[in-house]
Amino acid sequence: MSKEQEIGKAFDFKLFRRVFGFAKNYISILVTVVLSGILSAAFAVFTPIIVQYIINKALDARNDEQLLTAILVMGSVLLGQVIFQLMFNYFANLLGESVIKDLRMRLFQKMMAFKMTYFDKSSIGLLVTRAVADMQRIGEIFSQGFFVIVADVLKMVAAAGVMLVMNWRLALIVFAILPVILVATRLFQRAMKVAFIDVRAQVANLNSFVQERIAGIKIVQLFNREVIEKEKFREINEKHQNAWLKTVWYNSIFFPVAEISNSIGIGLVVYFGVIQQIETMQDTNVGTIVAFFFLMELLFRPLRQIADKFNTLQMGMVAANRVFMILDTDSHISDTGTREIPKVRGSISFSNVRFGYVENEEVLHGISFSANAGETIAIVGATGAGKSTIINLLNRFYEINSGSISIDGIDIREFKLASLRSNIAVVLQDVFLFADTIANNISLKDDSISLEDIEEAARQIGVHDFISTLPSGYEYNVKERGIMLSSGQRQLIAFLRAYVSNPGILILDEATSSVDTYTERLIQEATNKITEDRTSIIIAHRLATVKKADKIIVMDSGQIVEMGTHRELLKKDGYYSDLYQAQFLQEELA
Ligand SMILES: Nc1ncnc2c1ncn2[C@@H]1O[C@H](COP(=O)(O)OP(=O)(O)O)[C@@H](O)[C@H]1O
Ligand SMILES: [Mg+2]
């Protein structure tokens, strides 16, 4: 469904009730909003009534005391109106922000618990939009949509009622102008809607163009693309400008037109008011006519904006619908296990495990192997053979289709998910660092790990010297995704992160790829230290690093084709032996 179709949909009361359900924790704020809305509307129509009184009675009677009282009352009414309007605005916004604070919290928690399959299928950009922009829109239901509409309608009804009571004939004349304003507003809104679709498209273009050029700045500069990119940018920039100017143009037409209808209204009221006055020979009408000017403003002004506010309300509802869709998604790994083991001994067993990321596309076709506690297991095989998939299954990022996986003889589903994962540390080829200090990236804000622990661990695996050379050592802020560090340096930090968590099981997934020889030696030393006394699974391309493993598993197309020690496998003269010869030869030649 397109955005516009979604907005065009009939008002969804069930959804609306659900959104308001989130306000029930803030009843006192809600009540304040409603009361101040009602009072501010009441006070708004009170001003014209006093104006009428002053002109007709107090001024005419030249009664200073009456006049003074009336002016004082008017002053308090105006003050009251200001206060209630202020309260209304403040508390309506407060309510909106409170609701979305709770909602955002819920959404974030929900997202953090989603299983990998969910993220495989969802775009990061869209999820970010849900948590940020859509939330803001939901807040606007409260701050700019619903209550403002209700308050405006209240004001309009009150103004219309006061007009009818003051002078019903003049009131009907004013009401006759309403359709003109309504039609003009409707036409304007339609034109603006179309114009804004264009604006949004141009903004999106501009965004993605700039973002992409900055992300790919090296390519832009290396290939001397600056001039060409500038020309392309000029084009997009101009389109963006034109789209905006269109909305400015519509605004420039609409507001004078609306003002003219207002003036015509004033003219008509004066004309007929005077005629009426002559006919009835009463001179109470001057005050009424002036009061009508105020009342007309109260009636017309909200009318011009009410469609906008309905739009805001609808946009908020569309956003709420999207957010609720995520909140209603049940897509997490079932966490019904009860076993909590602070530190497993680390024996691992895969028994006839079958698995596919998507239905009917099996990736692992019956994998069986076991590792004794403390052993080092290596997995080798071509890219896409299914090595990383085995790791994804061991820490339950995905659920297996059949077979079983156990640690220390206990099925991994019987573990509490948190307990299972705290026992396994993984170092991936592509290290992710948060925009935070090195120390926080290592401890991941686990309070039980002190800076001394980190330093001690760093010394043990031989990376303390490297971290000390950074500008502020462990407090060095690596910025977004750690781009200030080389991939080898990031790798070392990831090793330390795994090491300080002191896991029963350690997994290195191609952790030594894409590093220089110097870093590789550091990593090799770190690996030796870190795999000591714990079960380790090492996935590696370079067979030199796996030679010492207690067991080497050779995989091909989702199956284990060979298994044994380096020597045994060489003797077998099969897949592994071929792989080894080829690599050996390559290195000899190099
Ligand atoms: N998240 C995923 N969604 C769908 N298919 C995937 C996903 N991850 C990996 N695969 C597929 O599973 C197969 C095994 O991948 P993987 O275990 O990553 O291989 P390896 O680590 O041995 O290079 C490949 O065919 C790959 O395309
Ligand atoms: Mg892999």
Rg is 36 Å
Going across the biggest sheet, name each strand in turn.
Answer: 6-7-8-3-9-10
CATH class of the largest domain: Mainly Alpha
Q: Count of helical segments?
A: 20
SS strand fraction: 5-15%
Largest sheet composition: 6 strands, mixed
**Please, what is the oligomeric state?**
single chain
Q: Give every kind of bound small molecule, once each.
A: adenosine-5'-diphosphate, magnesium ion
Order of helices and strands: HHHHHHHHHHHEEEHEEHEHHHHEHEEEHH
- The CATH level-2 architecture of the largest domain is identified as Up-down Bundle
What overall geometry do the principal axes of the alpha carbons give?
Answer: elongated
- Number of structurally distinct domains: 2
Helix coverage percent: 55-70%
Walk me through the structure:
It is a single chain. It is built from 20 helices and ten strands. The protein has helices at 3-8, 13-21, 27-61, 64-113, 116-121, 124-131, 133-166, 168-215, 217-222, 226-280, 285-327, 387-394, 417-422, 438-443, 451-460, 464-468, 487-500, 517-531, 566-572, 575-589, and strands at 348-355, 364-371, 376-381, 402-407, 410-411, 424-428, 505-509, 535-539, 551-556, 559-564. The two termini are 57 Å apart. Strand 7, helix 18 (517-531) and strand 8 form a beta-alpha-beta unit. A six-stranded mixed sheet has the order 6-7-8-3-9-10, with helices on both faces. A four-stranded antiparallel sheet has the order 2-1-4-5, covered by helices on one side. The relative contact order is 0.08. The chain has two domains: 3-327, ABC transporter transmembrane region fold, CATH 1.20.1560.10; 348-589, Rossmann fold. It is an alpha/beta fold. Residues 1-8 have low confidence and may be disordered. The structure holds adenosine-5'-diphosphate and magnesium ion. Adenosine-5'-diphosphate is lined by residues 120, 357-358, 363, 381, 383-389.
